Amino acid sequence: MGKPEIQKRILEGEQQGLVEEPEDAGEETEREEAHEPPKRLGRTASLRARLGSIGKGTKRKLSLRKRDKSKEGDNRPDTGATGGEATLDTTTQKKLRERTKGKEKALPPPPLTQPEVGFIPGRSFVGRVLECGWEVKEEVVRKGEWVSGLLDVRKSGALTEFIVVDRHRVHRVPHPSAVPGGAETNAVTTATTTSFNSFMTTSTTKPSPAIHPPSLTLEELALLALNGIPAYRAVRTFMQAFSGLAKPASGPKPFDYPPTTANGTFLGGRNHMMADHEPHRRRRALVLRGHDGVGAMAVQMLALRGWRVSVHVPLPGPHDAEESQQFMVEAEERVKLFGGEEVVFDDGGIGSDPWWDGGRLAAARVIDGLKEDGDVFDAVLDTIGGKEVREASERLLKSVGSLVPTTPGGGLIPLDGQTPRDRASKKSGPGQFTTLVGDVPERTIPTAADNFRAGLRSLKFGTGSSAGGGTAGSGSREGEEPRGKVGYAWISVAQDVDWEGEGISETIGNVLRLAFEHGIKPTVPRISTASASAAMYQWKGGAVPFDQAPEIFVDGDGPLCSGGTMVVKIASN
């Protein structure tokens, strides 16, 4: 076949509407020498064959171009590279650039930044179980049961309709009652020993058929874990410090109930009145902000164990005389129902206190005033935090008192209308300072340095204490302040397991048992002023619907200041 015939076929293909690039002369000559049949052009050529021919032609052109460039590189003059040095030609540099460019394209795109979302508050909750994981056993919780729990402070997120929670952070509770049981009317004044079905394992007496087991309201169950867990653990530190001191060997044991857990940490035994005290005197404790929140439950637990409890109550900012007087009256009535002995009001803060103080300096002034009045305390429960409060409490606890009782100071209000006896009676043994906040209240999540300093402070068993604990008139110089030991304990908000190895679920079970057997319940209604326009009056109920939840998270006059708590109703049962 000659060249004129090839050109004729090309022209025929163009007339039929197909555009075909002819191959170079070199390729045609090779095909003729090899006696290969010619390519069929036009409509008879398949798409795959045409694409293959185009690819072969492109590859050949590229190979010829590379060959020419390599020849140019050989004719390039020497650049003087000697030894181990080498000179890259233009082709090699281009190849490296192409390789680098390809790798850059192959890299994955940078990760997309996650959109910032708002923090969802809320730790304590109560609700019904919708689903259980396959590792959750029936003795822990079952589908459809009511549970109360406490979320991790690092995450929170309870103010949502549905939450996912670990099984170690919940405990089953009985169905909440629709009618409030009167947390302020039954607290401390009634004590029952009834069992409540499967929610507790053991009990000493069986309930009467005519008497229904007591129940908690939905609001009380919502606050049970938030207030009960830190209060229970704080009172346990007092038991650890004083239960084995000055008690005869034949005396009653501190735990006579069958324990609800393996280590037997329940503090509500029958003989709790004799567990923590000396033969000649009852122990005395000061609870800061004991009118609400965690402090209120701690006051009830200490009163159950026979402690004489003085309750500090902060005044709610600047108000007129009538509003302040009504607030003080309501606070005294509430503390009396809790089992407290007296109420100590602070000055509500002065102008020189910083705005971010949060009542620390006012509480420290009250503690220093108690020391100047000659009061003697065995323990202080701090719910405010701060270095000022800790140092003032240590000064108060180091005072061992005298044998001559003193008269009450101006800031003390006895609840029975009589002078409290033995306010400055001589004590023996160490003092105990337990805080729920630490030295830096602004830092909610403690750092490693905070935990390290707290550990050293607790191991030292008080800073600057004498070896044997000084007493008045023995071993101390004239005019020298008697010094005693002061123990230290910090119940951190980020602590899931306490120092006895008890977790969140076990502690909720013990607090629930105290609520059913001794009437120790969280406080839901709030103390307010008489004026309807006052900032605190609208929060008197202690519970708000979900659409009003953002209004309670405000600074200054919000309901969460001064140790307060609030309940948000997300969904009705």
UniProtKB/TrEMBL annotation:
It comes from Coprinopsis marcescibilis. Residues 1-118, 408-432, 463-483 are annotated as: Disordered. GO terms for cellular component: mitochondrion. Residues 1-12 have a biased composition (Basic and acidic residues). Residues 57-68 have a biased composition (Basic residues). Residues 20-31 have a biased composition (Acidic residues). This is Uncharacterized protein.
